[in-house]
Amino acid sequence: MTSVNAKHEALLDELLRDYTSPQDILGEHGLLKQLTKRMVERVLEAELTAHLGYAPHVRHGTEEQNARNGKGQKTVQTDTGPLGLTVPRDRNGSFAPQLVPKRQRRLEGFDTKVLSLYARGLSTREIQGHLEELYGTEVSPTLISTITDAVMDEVRTWQARPLASVYPILYFDALFVKSRQEGPVQTKAVYLALGITMDGEKELLGLWLSESEGAKFWLSVFTELHNRGVQDCFIACVDGLKGLPEAIEAVFPKTQVQLCIVHKVRNSLKYVPWKERRAVAADLRAIYGATTLFDAEHALERFAERWDAKYPAISPSWLADWDRLTVFFDYPPAIRRAIYTTNAIESLNYSLRKVLKGRSAFPNDESIIKVLYMGLQHVAKKWTQPIPEWKAALNQFVILFGERVQV
């Protein structure tokens, strides 16, 4: 083994003997590209030898047998730029290279590079400029679109995949993007459903596109989730969209709906001028930060006594939604932190908005789904458990929901 390593080191030393700058390795005529060219061409020659059954310059029998028939030129795109290849041919035209198949113009890895840039939010034109600047590769927007279009088959499979029968917690939210699908720019709503699995892991259940956010479309989303296998959910966390809790309960009647406290506080503070927002926010915090439901009720009473004369819309709004604002009081602190707000899905939305940043409008609805799906794959790699004490939370669910918990 030592002698083999020594030979490898000696070979590297010989290859790098005349190295003076990075261009000698990475440049247009650098060592890396030349080695790639030589290696690919050697493999193609070996493939033709295997196809014909005899090595070059070896007598092979009658003239009727297939034989080598010169070489053709071909340029393929690689991660380091365009690469000109000499491709061997056979007389019968039956040779089908495996490493670089006929009509293939991209070596493996190039498509991955394009998709990675697309997933980070770069537009087709930006990817084109990026590849040209870094690698000297002139890639048409049509080629980039062809590469990214292949993702749609993966999206359709993902969107139709079967789901788990039980998700302890589901989060629902929407973000908004602009599309030129029908000509003039229109704002579209992208519906997102994020689940917490029985193992305590995050899972995005799907992406749906609609003209606007509304309870009626959400109902169709919940119905699709049910048809894909979701039979039960313990807690659904949503914002204050009118009719949304009723839509959830129509499909999942046993589910408790927790309205997002953060959304409620934001909406309440809209009535308050800047000079008093801190004081009003502190009194609202006393409500949702209470230890028990009993204490929260008394905090709301104190809030009404202090602020109703100035801001008469706030406490009645909390009272109207009280049953759905206070679901989290039924649970221990570890679960409360995960369900009293839709932060879990809003943090996902924040990451996806970073992917969308800089795009004023998409050419069509399909391009929106492609970008968000690929962006999601990138974001999901960094996900952590939303409830660190998940085992303890799972035991609480067993106590509260019994046979509904499928461990």
Would you mind describing this structure in some detail?
With 407 residues, this protein is of the alpha/beta class. It is built from 18 helices and seven strands. It has a domain at 167-363. The chain has helices spanning 2-15, 23-26, 31-52, 110-119, 124-135, 141-149, 151-159, 215-227, 244-251, 261-269, 274-288, 293-307, 314-320, 322-325, 333-339, 343-356, 365-380, 390-401; strands at residues 68-78, 81-90, 166-179, 186-196, 202-210, 232-238, 256-259. A five-stranded mixed beta sheet has the order 5-4-3-6-7, with helices on both faces. A two-stranded antiparallel sheet has the order 1-2. The mean pLDDT is 80.
- Low-confidence regions: none
Order of helices and strands: HHHEEHHHHEEEHEHEHHHHHHHHH
Number of helices: 18
Computed Rg: 30 Å
- Sum up the overall morphology in one term: elongated
Q: Compute the separation of the termini in Å.
A: 50 Å
Structure described in brief:
The protein is α/β, with parallel strands linked by helices and 407 residues long.
